[in-house]
Amino acid sequence: MSFGDQNNPYGQQQPAQPAQPGYGYPAAPPVQQGYGAGYPAAPMEMPSSVKTGRILVWVIIALQIVFAVYALTQLGEIDKAVEGSGLNSNETEAIADIGKGVVVFFAGFAVVFALLGLFIGLKYTSGGNGVRVCAIVWASFAIVGGLFQLPIGIGTIIAAILLIVFAAKGDSAAWFKRPRV
Predict the structure, then answer these.
(1) Which pTM was predicted?
(2) pLDDT-above-70 percentage for the chain
(3) Which of 52, 76, 87, 128 is the most buried (most CB within 10 A)?
C-alpha cells in the first residue's frame, strides 16, 4: 500500500491518527483546582498595584479632610481682610458673607468627596470591576478638585494621577474581574 509520492521531500505521509497532546499541539490551559471535592479554589492574592491604589485612596481622603479643616479655620481671615479694605459696613458685611459662603462650599465639597472616597476605599478589596472604574473616575475629579485646593491640592493631584495609573494596570483589572465565591 502506498501513502503518497516517493519523491516527497517530507517523507512518507502517515495515515491520519487522532490528535494527541504533545509536540505541535498547544498545551491546555492550567485548570485551577479547588481544595477537594466541591470546595472553592484558594483566593487570589491582591497584587501590589491594587494595594498601592488602595493606599492612594486613603491618602486622597486624608488630604480632603485636611483641606476642609484648613478652609474652615480660615473663615476669620476673611473678616480681617474685608475690614482692612476700607469699605463701609454694609458692603463689607456682604463681601464677607460671600467669601465665607465660598469657603464653606469648598470645605463641604471636600468632606462629601472624602465620604465618596471612603466608600471606594472600603470596597477596594472585595468589590468588582465597578469599584475600579469608580476609583478612576473619582481620581479624575480629584485632579480637577485639587486645582481649587492649592497648595494642599498639589498632593491630591499627584496621588490622584498615581491612583489612575495603578487602577488602570492589567493586574488591577484582573484582580477586580476575578471570580468570587
Answers:
(1) 0.71
(2) 75
(3) 52
